[in-house]
Write a structure and sequence with these properties.
Length: 100
């Protein structure tokens, strides 16, 4: 059925003993580590289908609060996905400041 839509799925088995391994699910990447009490830390992941995305054209005639709310909501989203502050900073710099 998946082949009809040119969809390829990859199933992997990973456990917390595989230090350095990672599991990607939707827009979250779980990095297996022994530094966390849970056995993993989360970091954001940009799906291949969302690489060159644009939320709203800056030349459009939307009210200024609309643009501010997009940036604010994206910052909240990244904060929830990235457990470590350093990962949050890296993600913000890579995915958002380079596009401004």
């Amino acid at each position: 059925m998946f082949n009809d839509f040119n969809f390829d799925s990859d199933f992997r088995q990973v456990n917390t003993n595989d230090i350095g391994g990672k599991v990607e699910f939707l827009d979250v990447c779980h990095h297996i580590t022994d530094s966390s009490i849970f056995g993993f830390v989360t970091k954001d992941r940009i799906k291949p289908t969302a690489l060159d995305r644009c939320f709203l054209n800056g030349a459009s005639h939307h009210p200024q609060p609309t643009f501010k709310s997009i940036v604010h909501s994206e910052a909240i989203h990244l904060r929830r996905l990235n457990e470590k502050q350093s990962d949050f900073n890296e993600s913000w710099n890579i995915h958002y400041t380079e596009k401004l």
